[in-house]
Write a structure and sequence with these properties.
With about 110 residues, the chain is α+β, with helices and mostly antiparallel strands. The protein has a single domain, classed as SH3 type barrels, CATH 2.30.30. Helices cover about 20% and strands about 35% of the residues. The chain has helices at about 35-40, 90-105; strands at about 15, 30, 45-50, 60-65, 70-80, 85-90. Strands 4-5-3-2-1-6 form a six-stranded antiparallel β-sheet. A hairpin with a 2-residue loop joins strand 4 and strand 5. The radius of gyration is 13 Å and the shape is globular. The model has no long low-confidence stretch (mean pLDDT about 90).
């Protein structure tokens, strides 16, 4: 159920949101749901927030990337039509670290 003309998002993709109608700001997220889930034709994907400022760099569940800090404790389901556009991709090592951190947040 992806938007026509848009590829299915993959785990590790970095996406930039469309500008907010209120502020014009754009946000970065990385796709963290598994590729098998993403390709199943559903209407949502699981993403983690990427913070571009400096205040979260020292948190326990943060992964430093070229795009900012991925926060493994800030995960949300987003509808496909709210994903925005492809902006980049995490390295495999960064992606694996984020997923491991998300699992640690969930399992304790």
């Amino acid at each position: 159920m992806t938007t026509p003309g848009q590829p299915t998002p993959s785990q590790g993709d970095v996406l930039i949101s469309n500008p907010s109608p209120l502020t014009g700001e754009r946000e970065l997220h990385t796709v963290v749901s598994a590729d098998i889930y993403n390709a199943a034709g559903g209407s949502t994907v699981l993403v983690a927030e990427i913070e571009t400022g400096t205040r979260y760099r020292a948190t326990a569940y943060a992964t430093e990337t070229d795009y900012g800090v991925v926060l493994a404790d800030r995960v949300v389901w987003l509808p496909l039509d709210m994903l925005g556009e492809h902006f980049g991709r995490l390295t495999d090592t960064q992606r694996d670290r984020v997923i491991d951190q998300i699992v640690a947040v969930l399992r304790g």
